[in-house]
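Appendix B, example 12.
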Amino acid sequence: MKKIEEYTPYELAEFAANLGVIISKNLDFNSQNVLGNFIKGIGQSVLLMAAQAENHKNQENNESGDDENNLL
């Protein structure tokens, strides 16, 4: 099986759509809403951690003199 980074954007979109249909098929509307919002929450947490890691990396680069353009 390929790593997630190796899939094309189209393959990932198709996989996500198919998985969403499969998971939602046997759930009522309320359960779909709860599960969908829970998954969105997980996604937001992942994005927050990635953004903060990138921020820390950029700050370290700025402190070591690697980047002269400090925008923050």
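The mean pLDDT is 90. The CA atoms of residues 4 and 14 lie 13 Å apart.
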